[in-house]
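Continuing from the previous page...

OK, I double-checked the sequence for histidine kinase against my notes and this is the correct one:
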Amino acid sequence: MERLRRWYAWFRRHGPRLRDLIFIGFSLLYTLAQAMSQGGAQSSITFVVGIAASLALWWRRKYPVAVTFVAIVAQATTMVFAPLGFALFTLAIRRRDTVLALTSLAAYAAYVLGYGPENGRNELAVLFVTGPFVVGLWVAAGAYIGARRDLMASLRDRAERAESERELRAEQARLGERARIAQEMHDVLAHKVSLIALHAGGLEVNPGVGPEKVESSAGLIRETARQAMEDLREVLGVLRTDVSADGADLAPVPAATDLSRLVDASRAAGVNVSARIELPAEVPAALGRTVYRIVQESLTNVHKHARGAATEVLVTPERQQIVVRVANLRPVASGALLPGSGAGLVGLRERVNLVGGALMAGPTVDGGWQVEARLPWTPAPPDPSAAPADPTAAQTGPAAAPEHGEAAADRPDETEGENKVAQ
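Thanks. Re-ran it with the corrected sequence; updated structure tokens here:
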């Protein structure tokens, strides 16, 4: 089997030249037979011209048209048809156009002129009839092989292009997934790490606090670090290949219902946060996750760059859209606890754009900073067959006021004329 493979590889490498030698050898034999059938000076002419036309077949692939015309001349003068047949065969493989048609007509004329004088005028009719079949047989064979080669080359090229496009799409998908995971890790971990830095910074600037305060802050740092590790496991879970089928080892994706827990974590870190959250229960999950990430990233930036600044969180429906606004006053301390990566607001803008919303972020007139997002949302029409709801249960704003530290009814409406600079 190995010897057969080596023989096949050798034939693939030397096959074209081997076929050239076969064609030349057959043409020389045909020329010798044709010269021996003739007599006198014509025999010598046939022998010389036939040998020249046969040897010209060595260059049939490089100069197919020129070799074909040499064979046409040989056929017209000496009736040596073998070189002409092989030349037409090669030309038909290389090209199937007007040049082939004109060359075939010239070969047909050479066939008739070459055999006509020898057979007499009475045989011209037979030559006119058999000529197209003789010449056409070589042309048809070459055209079939050439068309088949072109088809195989086209299929091979299409397969290579499809393979390269598939690899390109796979690479783009991998890069997109890496970017998504990196953004998710930033959103998840930056908030927790900023809380840890805020707690540690409070102990650093207040070295005289009692042991109870130190113990409380250490417990908060430990709990926040544990949550950060759980969030990290959640994000990295998408990279695992041995995740169980039920996904029990992965934590659920944060949603809008976790906003209260998010605000409470910032309050526990010492940030003065007042919140008004009036998010309808029928908000889609994707939109709820976007709301959560906006509030999370905004509070993370407050922890990093505006420690000690009073912050206001507003999440409320307004004219078929959800308005998310997080604004903080001028920070009382300069400098940042953690360096910024510059990817937070960029990632938020991408998230908001994916749901068709708009994000505005920039300084306020009083020196603070504000992030505002408007996310499109169309509430479902009320069901007329449903029983009327309790009016007191629908007032989520005032009911949430004791939990978030501020009544919704006592807060003036926010104006839309504040200075918002996109970051």
